TrEMBL record:
Keywords: Cell membrane, Membrane, Transmembrane, Transmembrane helix, Transport. Belongs to the binding-protein-dependent transport system permease family. This is Raffinose/stachyose/melibiose transport system permease protein. SUPFAM superfamilies: MetI-like (SSF161098).
Length: 291
């Protein structure tokens, strides 16, 4: 009987309702506006890619309820966009591999060894981040001419590798510096040399930093129109971003074809980003540069 009285006398606490502040409302309005300005242009491009050039000119904001595929057929037959896709993947993929190889080795030395001039090297690396890419175009182009690398795959791969190497070294070195020395000593006891230790110990542990660096390097090299226009301008080695500039000059009146080429260029990168965004977020925190 007493237990029933106690149960009946239990105090029911009111559920606290979350307060809706003006600051939160303002933040959501800003984020919504930013999302619309980012998403709508992409939708506008994809929508116009299913229209003829005349429809794009007359009413570009109308939804294409009756889509046409002629623009996509012309993209692969008339301007050979598939070849440009292959060129971009070869150049960007090769740049990523070289950056990870040389950047990882340099980061391993800087993070795990103490030697004279180490601070100077770090200062030089940080200083190179302040130099714009435009300032190095003339000497790089002159080197490519003397080595006969203009309009070749290495003619864009090597400059992309050199341009992204500093970023890779600093990010990977900052991550490797956080690895405990006890793991390194245990590897020495097990008989590992420096190369085995780098491959079997540091590379697996530093995988988030390597992943974030590879993602950024691929996106930067894939979207680098400036270098593509200068260092490689022949059709057989032309990347896809350079193809867009050529379409705007040769087929300037065919707006449907231009919209299709832009959509085919952007959508694959967007899909890749959606699948690997978690690695980017993880790399920004775990692979942060430490002084």
């Amino acid at each position: 009987m007493q237990q029933e009285v106690v149960k009946s006398q239990r105090v029911v606490r009111p559920v606290k309702s979350k307060k809706f502040s003006i600051g939160s409302a303002f933040m959501y309005v800003i984020l919504t506006a930013w999302a619309m300005t980012t998403i709508y242009p992409l939708f506008w491009i994809v929508n116009n890619s299913f229209k003829t050039s005349r429809d794009v000119m007359n009413n570009s904001f109308k939804i294409a309820f009756d889509p046409v595929m002629i623009n996509y057929e012309n993209a692969f037959e008339r301007i050979n966009i598939g070849r440009s896709y292959i060129n971009s993947l070869i150049m960007s993929g090769s740049a990523v591999l070289l950056v990870l190889l040389f950047g990882g080795l340099a980061a391993y030395v800087l993070s795990r060894f103490n030697f004279k001039g180490k601070r100077t090297i770090y200062s030089i690396l940080y200083a190179t981040l302040l130099i714009p890419a435009f300032a190095t175009v003339v000497p790089v182009y002159e080197i490519l001419i003397k080595t006969s690398l203009v309009n070749t795959y290495p003619g864009l791969i090597f400059p992309q590798t050199a341009g992204n190497l500093t970023f890779a070294i600093l990010v990977i070195a900052g991550y490797m510096a956080t690895i405990p020395k006890e793991l390194e000593e245990a590897a020495f006891i097990d008989g590992c040399n420096r190369w085995q230790m780098f491959v079997k110990l540091f590379v697996p542990i530093t995988r988030p930093a390597f992943a974030s660096v590879s993602i950024f390097v691929f996106l930067w090299s894939y979207n680098d129109l400036f270098s593509a226009l200068i260092f490689v301008n022949k059709e057989n080695v032309r990347p896809i971003v350079a193809l867009l500039n050529e379409i705007s000059s040769q087929y300037g009146t065919d707006f449907g074809l231009m919209a299709t080429a832009v959509a085919l260029t952007v959508i694959p990168v967007l899909i890749i980003y959606l699948f690997i965004s978690k690695f980017i977020e993880k790399g920004l925190t775990e692979g942060a540069v430490k002084g």
